[in-house]
Amino acid sequence: MSMHRPSGCPSCAEPLEEGDRFCGVCGYAVTAPPPAESADRPTIALPPAPPAAAAQAAPTVAPPAGPAPAGYAAPAPGWGSVASAAPTLVDAPAESAWAPEGSVEHAHGGAPEGPQARYDLPGGGTPPEGTAWGPAETPYAETPYTETPYAEAPHEAPAEAPQGTGKTCVACRAGHVDTDGYCEHCGHAQPRERDHLEEELGSVAAVSDRGLRHHRNEDSFAVAATALPDGSTATVAIVCDGVSSASRPDEASAAAAGAANEALLDALPRGAHPQEAMHSAILAAAAAVNALAPEVPGAQNAPACTLVGAVVGSGLLTVGWVGDSRAYWVPDDRAALPRRLTEDDSWAAQMVAAGLMGEAEAYADVRAHAITGWLGADAYDLEPHTATFKPDHPGVVVVCTDGLWNYAESAREMAQVLPADAAVRPLHGAQVLVGHALDGGGHDNVTVAVVPFTTPAQPSPEAAQAQAQAPAQTHAEPESGTGTEAEARP
Questions:
Q1: Does 487 have pLDDT greater than 60?
Q2: Do residues 446 and 432 lie in contact, with contact meaning Cβ atoms separated by under 8 Å?
Q3: DSSP letter (8 states) at residue 268
Q4: Which residue in 187, 248, 276 sits closest to 483, CA to CA?
Q5: Which letter, b or e, does each residue of 240-273 get, where b requires 16 or more Cβ atoms within 10 Å of its Cβ?
Q6: Stretch 249-265: mean pLDDT
Q7: What is the Cα gyration radius of the chain?
Q8: Contact between residue 415 and residue 338 where contact means Cβ atoms under 8 Å apart
Q9: Dist CA 214 CA 227 (whole Å)
């Protein structure tokens, strides 16, 4: 072997045989002189060259024609949602209108400025998995590598790098996110999937956001639609708020929302009355939260949450709740009167009900949000509240946690914030309501579901006259463990 020839590949140190022109492992051109090592070793990144100078120094090179080489990977997509049966993360654009304060999007506003990493220079490092080859670095573009005729001992294949989550970093837009939630390229922590959730069906939409002060989102929601025995459709919306002073509040709210939703989707298609089905759903949610408590007898600070839900179908509006999450009725005709459909299980509500304080004074007290009813193993006697209404005009039902109604407490304030087209654009309406809470300070997690309510089609005058002349029929009240149906007209 010539004294002027290296015994190993200058790129990967693989042993070479006499006559090798290319490294059998990395494809390095052995006959090419090694690049001169720069004596300049700065400790800080050099500033980028001006655009004009950069354009002259590195003219644009057209990508090679023909099919893509082996190993070519298309650029990784942007960070988006993960499909699941539960509520999902939409695609988060580079400039999200709802990026919470303190999140990566809020801190950086998209891709970082300044010079980008170069992977085609010696010592530039290995590009993240999925990074496309540049136009001038297509592997083995000039002389394809072929096996040497010499018999060599088999080499062990290098161990494959562990696969990450498949997501692309929201900060650098280049690296992949590992299973710990950090970018493998720049090291940035990624937003958690529950920080901002949105879901829209044809008849309901919901949005949940972490807010600007909490370190995690402890709210949960579930929205669904199901067919009733008469062929019509019923819409379901459940919103739960984890009790922050309890343990694992995020798990409690998720368990309650899922259990209540499943119970309603099981009972309604079988013909159960919505008020009875709602009562049973709240009991199922309570059992799911109780199951999270430690098995130690007398354990304190068990997981807990509040719940509010709405079912719209067959011309009826049914609500159920435990705690201080609320439901509001907002008519499409804003000249009509909006109203709140629930009463809080809270210290402030008790003071008002007892006549000891006015509503404004009670809710201004520091004890106002101390709840007196909740779902959890350490709750007092559980008393689910249910009510059924029969509106005679169209509108929307707003189902929300206190993270929203703290900034629009009265029904009139809620109606003023809700867009006029919320009945036809429920997702947009929910986004506007969440944005209103964030603009107001976002001191708590914010979750809201918007459920449009349409009145049944009115019969023609001839049909109405024929129906009036028909003999009257009697209908028995549905049996329910929650008492008789309250058919109010909002």
A1: no
A2: no
A3: G
A4: 276
A5: bbbbeebbbbbbbbbbbbbbbbbbbbebbeeebb
A6: 98
A7: 31
A8: yes
A9: 38
The amino acid that residue 196 corresponds to is: H
Q: Is 275 helix (H, G, I), strand (E, B) or coil?
A: helix
Tokens representing 18 are 């006499």
Give 428-454 pLDDT, tens digit per residue: 999 999 999 999 999 999 999 999 999
**Burial state string for 181-203 with b = 16 or more CB within 10 A and e = fewer than 16:** ebbbbeebebbebbbbbbbbbeb
In the block, residue with structure tokens 């670095």: 137
What's the rounded Cα separation, in Å, for the pair 223 and 446? 16
Contact 292, 252 (CB under 8 A): yes
**Alpha carbon distance, N-terminus to C-terminus of the chain:** 95
Separation in Å, CA 403 to CA 409, 438, 478: 10, 9, 36
Segment among 124-138, 296-310, 337-351 with least mean pLDDT: 124-138
Cα→Cα distances 389→225, 301, 320, 443, Å: 19, 36, 12, 32
> Taking CA 435 as the corner, what is the angle to CA 430 and CA 440, rounded to the nearest 5 degrees?
130
User: What's the rounded Cα separation, in Å, for the pair 260 and 236?
Assistant: 10
Which of helix, strand or coil describes residue 112? Answer: coil
Give the C-alpha distances (Å, rounded to integers) separating 39 from 10, 36, 42, 352: 19, 9, 9, 79
Rounded-to-integer distance, Cα 337 and Cα 222, Å? 28
Contacts of 100 (CB under 8 A, 6+ apart): 106, 195, 196, 209, 210, 211, 212, 438, 442
pLDDT for the residue 476: 37
449, containing H or E segment: strand 446-453
C-alpha distances in angstroms, 214 versus 72, 210, 293, 432? 42, 6, 23, 20
Structure tokens at 214: 């909490």
Query: How far is Cα 18 from Cα 364, in angstroms, rounded to an integer?
Result: 87
Residues 29 and 9: their CA atoms lie apart, in Å, by 9
How many angstroms from the chain centroid is the CA of residue 141? 44
Residue whose token pair is 């290296």 = 6
